[in-house]
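Researcher: Here's the sequence for the chain we discussed earlier.
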Amino acid sequence: MTEKIEISKLDTINIGIVGHIDHGKTTLLQKLSGKWADTHSEELKRGITIKLGYADAIIYDSEGKLTTNRNSKGKPIRYITFVDAPGHEMLMATMLSGAAIMDAAILVVAANEGIKPQTQEHLVALKAKKIKKVIIVQNKIDLVSKERALKNHEDIKNFVKGTIAEDAPIIPISAQQEVNLDKVLEELCKIKIAEQLLKEKPLFLVARSFDINLPRTKIKDLHGGVLGGALKKGVLKIGDIIEIKPGYSYKKNIPANRNSEYQYKTVQSKIVSMQKGEYPITKATPGGSLAIETELDPSLTKADALSGSVASLQDNLPEITEKITIKFTLFKEVFGTGKHEPVQNLKTPETLMLSLNTSTTVGQLIKINKDEAELTLKIPIVPLKGESIGIARNFNNHWRLIGFGEIC
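Model: Thanks. This is the structure I predict for it:
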């Protein structure tokens, strides 16, 4: 049974859980939220996170100790949505999409294995997506000696020196044994959402889209298409009319000069209902995951058909484009390979993978001028000025993050 809690009165926030594939990220999420996020059948077979995993939890203050246990009878103080990002090197695009909806992140490092190439790659990905608040969790301390745990702690401090996580707390834990998880919750409760975001125009990032109707549902009982993601700015209410861009794609009368074989159509719809996790709400503010039921034909939203889109109130979003100019910064070396390879300068007409908000597209460089580059895109984007972009290059059929930028 759903708890009788007024979610709208709680601070809400999206927390990413990132790091190397075998360092216990998904176990940590399960212990903090009570949910095992890897529900996709292929994920269970392979033992890795392929899609983004989501889990919601409420932090309670139970006589001075923080917990996510619903039976604690404590006072609810914060609503958290955890985003479990893939740790596998071949799934960097998915990780970058997940970073777009994170307000802060937990970087997991296993004490028995230490810093791995994917640990480095995920940390620079957080920088590329302008994540400024990081909590470092030193996991699996139950598997090592005190001396090795202290050495690993020192290695982590040296690793983050000069990075966005230089001043991040490092919390030794055992997720499996539930040691020090309350200390992680204490740090999560210190993170604040900027209040000025409430006054800006709404910007909802679509990470998933669904058809929630069961087979053979009667027409009168059908629900409209559902969008899942995060409201990054502004306020949305039931009854608002929203527009969704780029919208849905289709093949039809493609001009020869177009980069993509698909055309895209912006869609508009009314918000019918909204939920944060299992809790219905009437007004949404930034922070936490959000599901929006619309009046859209569910065939438009099934199987994540609208994921990667952005939504706002009518006439708030710029027109979609297949050509952009970005201001970019390249890293000194390629992270994720463990080889310390230098990042070579961009060259026309090379192809790059660009991650913008929850969307991923491929762009071909057509012009470079110092730290600015012009690209034509395979999949159009909504060009929100100043939005951060992750830039990846193909190395032996693996996309590797080589820098970041923003739309000019």
